């Protein structure tokens, strides 16, 4: 269960891209081999591709694999890097929460259905809300980890000072 929870985005992105690739290969094979296509396969491939992209974005965010500009952080002294990271994380948290809210509104306004499968756009657009919410959770995790980094030197300093008082 822990593996599934820890790798939620990666598993769903893998399943979605696997379905996308399978549908495209099957459709090409049927089109050129037998002269017909499965009418809903293109819609399913596009929907799964959208889901794989957004879950991939969330996964990369979780592992801090997105490109970043760390010129400012490199210029800061060591003591200021973690607090600066916390400020940046709060900014990213605000952005992710705003985007989650806006994507929720967008999802709730989805009243159309796809032409062939008849699938509601609510399901298709739901990935936006889900992934921006996951990214908000990951940002909170980053903030808690950075706060722990700030507290560790203070705690070890307190232990050292209490040991020197005992001597």
Tell me what the structure shows.
The protein has helices at about 1-5, 10-35, 40-60, 70-75, 80-110, 120-165. It has about 170 residues and is mainly α. It has 2 domains: about 1-65; about 70-160. The longest helix has about 45 residues, at about 120-165.
Strand content: under 5%
The N- and C-terminal alpha carbons lie at a distance of 49 Å
Query: What is the residue-mean pLDDT, rounded to a whole number?
Result: 90
Counting DSSP H or I runs of 4 or more residues, the number of helices is 6
The percent range for helix content is over 70%
Radius of gyration: 23 Å
Multimerization state: single chain
Biggest sheet overview? none
Element order: H for helix, E for strand: HHHHHH
Count of domains: 2
What's the total number of strands? 0
The assigned structural class equals mainly alpha
Shape: elongated
Extract low-pLDDT stretches. 161-167
Subcellular location: Cell inner membrane
Protein name: TRAP transporter small permease protein
InterPro entries: DctQ (IPR055348), TRAP_DctQ (IPR007387)
Domain Tripartite ATP-independent periplasmic transporters DctQ component: 22-148
Which keywords apply here?
single chain, 167 residues, mainly alpha, 2 domains, 0% strand, elongated, disordered C terminus
Question: Which SSEs are present, and which pair or pack?
Answer:
Layout: H1 2-6, H2 8-34, H3 41-62, H4 71-75, H5 78-108, H6 121-166
């Amino acid at each position: 269960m822990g593996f599934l929870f820890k790798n939620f985005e990666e598993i769903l992105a893998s399943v979605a891209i696997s379905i996308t690739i399978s549908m495209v290969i099957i459709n090409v094979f049927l089109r050129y081999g037998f002269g017909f296509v499965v009418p809903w396969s293109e819609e399913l491939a596009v929907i799964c591709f959208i889901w794989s992209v957004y879950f991939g974005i969330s996964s990369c965010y979780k592992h801090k694999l997105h490109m970043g500009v760390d010129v400012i952080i490199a210029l800061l002294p060591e003591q200021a890097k973690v607090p600066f990271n916390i400020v940046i994380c709060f900014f990213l948290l605000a952005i992710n929460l705003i985007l989650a809210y806006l994507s929720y509104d967008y999802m709730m306004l989805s009243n159309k259905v796809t032409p062939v499968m008849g699938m509601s756009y609510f399901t298709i657009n739901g990935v936006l809300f889900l992934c921006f919410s996951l990214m908000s959770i990951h940002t909170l995790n980053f903030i808690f980890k950075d706060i722990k980094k700030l507290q560790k030197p203070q705690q070890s300093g307190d232990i050292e000072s209490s040991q020197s008082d005992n001597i």
